[in-house]
Every structure is written in structure tokens, then in C-alpha cells.
Amino acid sequence: MVVEIVTRMSHQMIYLGHPDDALGLLEVAAAKANLPATRALVASQTGRVHAALGNERDAERHLGAADELVADGLGDDVPEWVAYFDAAEHAGARAVSARDLTSIGRPRRASDHFTDALALRRPGFNRVKVMDRIGLAAALFTENEPEQGAAAAHQVLEDAARVDSTLVASRLNTLLYAARPYRTAAMDEVRTRAADLAAARPTAVAA
């Protein structure tokens, strides 16, 4: 129960943009986590937070630990509250971590991890899939693949319009930032559509 409460609180701190507070909570959760699934979740989240803070070595250490736990299997006795966490969710954490490290000059191919997350997602999870697809488009822009990024953005923006979510809005703002260097008609259209959608769902959360 302690791990569940503290992990949920750390989620909130991440999305509110307070990574230092999230890290402190995850340290408490790590001391209590004793199942493969909970240990993997905590390691994955901790790696993500370290990446947001620019702690490259610590990020890779925790994400690598989560890699191993996920690869070994998360067990059959997974608590209901952590059942959402799987290889796809960890790939998503890997993707966001790569994005954050790239933003401080330590390049990673976040697009590879977003692609993995999309391939691994179970049926349903439509909001998360939209977030992954927006993240993929933004990553492609950052990785100097504007044509692929524009194509991916055009494909997802229509679906994003149907999802009323501050987390999706946060990803749209990331997409707008990544698209800034490119000035073509196709990119102008992407920017206009993404900006309109983001403006309709203002948010200060980190996603």
C-alpha cells in the first residue's frame, strides 16, 4: 500500500513539473518495493526523473535496471494498481528520457523508443497512444527528419483533436518546440493545427 500511494504521488509531481520532489518520493517507494513489477515501475520512473534533471548516469542506471526486470518478466502476482505497467509503458519512459537528455545536449534517438512503445501497447490506451504518436513526430523533428516528422504529425493531429487531455496538450507543446527550425508550407500547417489544439487545452504539466 505504501508503494502504491508514494508512486501515485510521484506521478503527480512528475506531471506538475517537480522532478526533485518526485525523486524523493521514489526513493521512499524503492525501499518498500519487493515485487518484480513494483521494482521495475519504480526503477523506470526513477530513471525518467533523473533524465529530466540531466543526471545521465543515474538515468541510465535505473532505466537499465528496469530493462532487466521487464525482460525477466514481471511475475504473475502483479497488484491491480500496477497492472498498467508493462514493456510498453517502460518504452515510453525510455522515450521521454531520451527526449529530455537530447534537450540538454546528450543526444538519444527518442523516436526508436516511441516506435517500440507503440508496437507494444495493448488494445485500448487510446490517449497514451496519441501521446506516443505526438512524441514520435516531435522526436523525428529533433533528429533532423522533418519530412517523416511532418507525416507523423499530420496523421496524429486529427486523433489528438478528439482527446481532451492536458497531457496530450503538453506533448503538443513539445511538438511545437521541436518544429521551430523548419519553415515549409507543410510545417506551417502542422504548427497551426498543433498550436490551435494546444491553446484549447492550456497546461503546465510535464509529459
SSE map:
Blueprint: H1 2-15, H2 19-32, H3 36-52, H4 56-72, H5 87-103, H6 110-120, H7 126-142, H8 146-160, H9 166-179, H10 185-200
How does this model look, in words?
With 207 residues, the protein is mostly helical. 73% of the residues lie in helices and 0% in strands. The chain has helices at residues 2-15, 19-32, 36-52, 56-72, 87-103, 110-120, 126-142, 146-160, 166-179, 185-200. The protein is globular, with a radius of gyration of 17 Å.
Number of separate strands: 0
Rounded to the nearest angstrom, the distance between the terminal CA atoms is 25 Å
Task: Output the structural class.
Answer: mainly alpha
Biggest sheet descriptor: none
Helix content: over 70%
The parts where pLDDT drops under 50 for at least 5 residues are none
Helix-strand string = HHHHHHHHHH
Query: Total number of helical segments?
Result: 10
Provide mean pLDDT, rounded. Answer: 92
Q: In one word, what is the shape?
A: globular
> What fraction of the residues are assigned to beta strands by DSSP?
under 5%
Rg calculated over all Cα atoms: 17 Å
Task: Identify the notable features of this structure and list them briefly.
mainly alpha; single chain; 207 residues
Summarize this entry quickly.
With 207 residues, this protein is mainly α. The protein contains 10 helices and no strands. The chain has helices spanning 2-15, 19-32, 36-52, 56-72, 87-103, 110-120, 126-142, 146-160, 166-179, 185-200.
